[in-house]
Amino acid sequence: MEILIAAAGSRGDIAPYTGLGAALRGAGHDIAVATTDTFAPLVRDAGLEFRRLPADPGARGGGTGGRQLMRAASAFIAELGQGFADAMDGGMDLLLLSTTTAPLGWHLAEATGTPCLGVYLQPTVPTGDFPPAVTGARSLGRTVNRTAGHLALRMTDRLYARGVTDLRHRLQLPPATATATRSRRERANWPVLHGFSTALVPRPADWRTGLSVVGNWWPHLGPDERLPADLEDFLHAGPRPVLIGFGSMAAGEGERLSEIAVRALRRAGLRGILHSGSAGLTADGNDLFTVKDVPHALLFPRLAAVVHHAGAGTSAAALRAAVPAVPVPVTADQPFWAGRLAGIGAGTDPIPFRSLTVDRLAASLSRVTREQKYARAAARAARHMAAEDGAGQVLKAVEGLAGE
């Protein structure tokens, strides 16, 4: 089958699909990934075809108020829809749609008659078990959780309204709202496979038929990939270090965060690796090392703990490596995942990003590296995750559609 995976967002929203795509390619399917230019190397390094989607709205600048951000997001989504239609030129046998691309992909599927499946990295369907992932980790009771979930979907529909109207006009489809299209998919029990572990989020019992939690899709790792030699030297030179990094978050705050990280590590008596990331963290010293992007699958098993922004992918990678965490959530769904890590005992209580201080970080580092309960909880989660086969479950669903 010719399969197009469509995803938009930050690195953590794209990298898992490179591993999923490689697994599907290994089973004999032709895989293309539609995403932004920034991630073309990730796609091509996994042996997959790259198809371009428009750049994300962060590159445009503009206002920072709520209304300005909503308008910018709406405009980007409209542009994304047109780019998605271009990426579909030539036709495909199947669409695999991420959380951000599904509300647009449904219309392309309708216009072309192409089957589609959801492959989501976040839980978006309302449930009484927890509030919407984008609103944080605090549960307000089953009824309020579900109500908040429906409100979050309606807000999403508003963001996609212009994009849906423009896309349907281009595709010569009759008018239909984003809400009506989503509701129609839900009534049809449209299948969505969620690429996270039941170790963190068990499947809610009140979810409709067609929704499943299958386990993580791990970023592609080439058979010849290795850690840099100087990083290997640092790892061998002393006790296991702690990694501190914020991924694609906190741009422009490198100086402040680097100072906090270094002082907290030294107060806790720990060696440290700083992941520069978008923030630009850096440090010097015999007990410190700075890295750019290195594969989590190679580095994380060599660590004592990870201090991170609690993105879904980084949270899962630390658990997979049986490494406990100090979560420092910044925005979006990160407080949700931070709360999940703490809830299963594999992470300390989250430190909100704006509340991060030397004292708080040093205290959490001391706890997470000295109290063995955190490592034991992470190891339990790692064993659970090792029994899951997220990519295999998607392959089964794909081949079920193909009648193979």
Task: Please render the helix and strand layout as text.
Layout: E1 2-6, H1 11-26, E2 30-36, H2 40-45, E3 49-53, H3 66-87, E4 94-97, H4 102-112, E5 116-120, H5 142-170, H6 178-187, E6 192-194, E7 211-213, H7 229-236, E8 242-244, H8 254-268, E9 272-275, E10 288-291, H9 296-299, E11 305-308, H10 312-320, E12 325-327, H11 334-343, H12 358-370, H13 372-386, H14 390-402
Parallel strand pairs: 1-2, 1-4, 2-3, 4-5, 5-6, 6-7, 8-9, 8-11, 9-10, 11-12
Helix pairs in contact: 1-14, 3-5, 4-5, 8-12
3D structure, described in words:
With 404 residues, the chain is an alpha/beta fold. The chain has 2 domains: 230 residues, Glycogen Phosphorylase B (Rossmann fold), CATH 3.40.50; 158 residues, 3-Layer(aba) Sandwich (Rossmann fold), CATH 3.40.50. Helices cover 45% and strands 12% of the residues. The chain is built from 14 helices and 12 strands. The strands form 2 sheets. It has a 7-stranded parallel sheet, with helices on both faces. Helix 1 packs across helix 14, helix 4 packs across helix 5 and helix 8 crosses helix 12. It starts with a strand and ends with a helix. About 2% of the residues have low confidence.
How would you describe this structure in keywords?
404 residues; alpha/beta; Rossmann fold; 2 domains; seven-stranded parallel β-sheet; five-stranded parallel β-sheet; 14 helices; 45% helix; globular
